[in-house]
Amino acid sequence: MGANTFNGRNGHKTIILEKEVIPDLETLETVTADRSATAEAPVVTPEIEKEVPAKPKRKRPTGLILAGLGVGAIAAGTFGYHYWQYASTHQETDNATVAGNIHQVSSRIPGTISEVLVNDNQLVQPGQLLVKLDPRDYQSKVQQAQAALENARGQAQAAQANIALSSQTTTGKTTQAQGDVSGAVAAISTAQAAVQEAQAGIPASLAAVQEAQAGIPAAQAQVAQTNANLEKAQADYNRYNELYKTGAIPRQQLDTAKAAYDVATAQKNGAIQGVQQAQAKLASAKVGVAKAQSQLAQAQENVTNAQAKLAASKGGLQQATAGGQDTTVKRSQYEAAKAAIAQSEASLKDAQLQLSYANVTAPSAGRVGRKNVEVGNRVQSGTPLMAIVDNSYWVVANFKETQLEKMRPGEPVEIKLDSFPHHTFIGRVDSISPASGAQFALLPPDNATGNFTKVVQRIPVKVVFDQKSIQGYESRITPGMSAEVAVEVK
Fold it and tell me: Above 90 in pLDDT, residue 378?
């Protein structure tokens, strides 16, 4: 078995056999005695023995041998005690490595590299510009998004103006249509009243016609009577005139007959005028009937016109109501235009965001590593460009599961890095992994098989450095370094 030395906290060198703790003191003393005897035996090669001249053998005193064995036993016991004391309060492993935050820097958009502003292993700060991509394609998209946004805003303004215009027009048309409907209803009432008046005038006109027609025969009878009276008065006048000429009667009787004749003539003329008046009255009555009928027809036509106007007015009112629906449609168009504005704004923000991705910046402070990008390279989204390793370090120590019985977070730890063998770093246990390393493997072992062999598992333990102990080593410690860890357990 191989042996390694380790400087404990009390300054004593401790021999660790295969990095495992010897379970009991008796075995430890036996092994230690064997090693002490082996160490005391001189090692002489055959070549040296040939060169050294033979000397006569001397007898060694038994007392010295016993004294030497006693001293060796005491030294071995002292060493074993100190080793047991150290081993009982410390758990060690060399299956440990330094870990750290490695930030992968990649492109979030496809493009062509135009500038690389950092070199390998260079120290960078958060937000520092690392790589530039050709931004012209994304600048064009930003301009297109801005134009689409302006277009959407113009459409929204036009839709809003159309809403106001349509609302005012609809209100005016509705008012006018309601007025036309009211006027048409009033005109219908007036026309219907005129129809009733005309219908009432027709019977009176017909009665006047009948009365005029009835007066004509009476007037004609009066004419006939006056004609008879006139003939009698004329005959009397002629007879009295003959008698007067013969002197048979006086002049007075002749004048009386003459007056009677004149009266009969006047009565005849009056009767003739009465007939004429009756005929004129009949004609006038007939004209009144025709006029009343004409007024009735006109009134009926006015009713029809008023009803047609009412229908037209109702159509205009319906059209005005439809104009209100058109206003609702225009409001919907305006809402759609506002939605288009929001969409265009989102597109513009997305285009500006894509343009900002043309500048690749450092996610944190640290040093550049694994840079594999040069000017002119064509990269896709997610293509790794480089890595940034920050200055936050810790140690992942893989302890055997049998070493974790007394281990707790916060316990002090001594750390030795292979890169700095003459410096001991101080730290503390931060946390213990919730599962063994095998459980996180791509293909975890299945123990429910018939060929199970018990194997001691390794549990990762996170150990953080004390910042004071790594002063001056911050830029020299790197993830992946091998380490040896000793945890002081309670």
Answer: yes
